[in-house]
Amino acid sequence: MNTHTNPSQIPQAGVVVIGGGTAGWTIIETLRKLDATLDITLITADSGDRYIKPQLSAAFSQNKTAATLINKTAESLAATLNITLLAHTVVTSIDSHAQTITSNHGMIGYHRLILATGAVPVLPANLPCEHTWQINHIDDFDKLQRKLATKPNQHIAIIGAGMIGVELAEDLSRAGHRITLIGRDQLPLLGVLPPIAATRLHTALTDIGICYLGDTHIQSIHPNQGQYQLSHANGELLVDEVITSTGLMLDKTLAASAGIDHSQHGIIVNPTTLQSSNPAIYAIGDCISIYGKPCRFVAVLREQASAIAHHILGLDHTGYQHKPPMIRLKNKAITVSITGEPTPQAWHIDNDDESLLLLSQRIDDTITAKIELKAPSK
Asked: Which residues form the FAD/NAD(P)-binding domain (predicted)?
């Protein structure tokens, strides 16, 4: 393994991966399994230490810290995989014609480039980042976890009642905090879930003490004597901490500088090879868009990595075949799982009793999507 602080000291690399998260390490591992001598360089803006990102929304109640969430350090992984690691290196632009990357530490060339840069939080202007937390990285989790460890029983507002917001609400509630979950819809996860399912989720959350403030748009946040005052159309709310979970989007900086096709959902890739509009540049994970939709699923990363690695190395492969995996919320108050590709069409109720709600959508006699909400065992 080589560790450099100055990319300009490195000769043109064979394959360069930008992004040291799960997607980046997955493609590196896959390439190395197929080619023991391939020149691979990883550029990451942080340390690159490996952790499982979905665990962040369920770690507070388990008394986890950033240190205990890290599985392996980047340096140990780089040594094992025999790659060049450029940690704490921020890429500022990509010249796709010259096939060079410019960073805060210099320039490096590439033969093939793989973008594994993830997605960034969507933060409306009325929710300034200096007053809110976004749990999208282990460093964000670390700062909030350290603060809450010294201040138990805090009143925390979570703005955004999507999947991550719902998971964080329960996790922080079980960690001993008072939670107000704020959403624009009447019910949490409405839109992802039909009303009958969202109602059951709402009941499960309120039963464990979470307050859901629906049909609510936060207009402003202001510091107030060590707390934060949230203003909305129906009044005001005073809390100790504010977490925003208002969605993710692509940071377009690198895609724009490289001149590759992209949208707010991600870098537009070939659905089989995961090449961008520039054939020397590939993308994987949260930063890609397939068929006009974001593809933010950890479960499909190995399949994506296999397709990219085989294509780069010129090995036979059927290519990536995208199928949305099962989505399972990490909530314990009620188990929620979604399979298939739900559409706005009506749902068929297959089971509706106190312990289990089972819904399905069908085309002819074929089930195309399922939703299951299961109460915990008593």
From this structure: 15-291
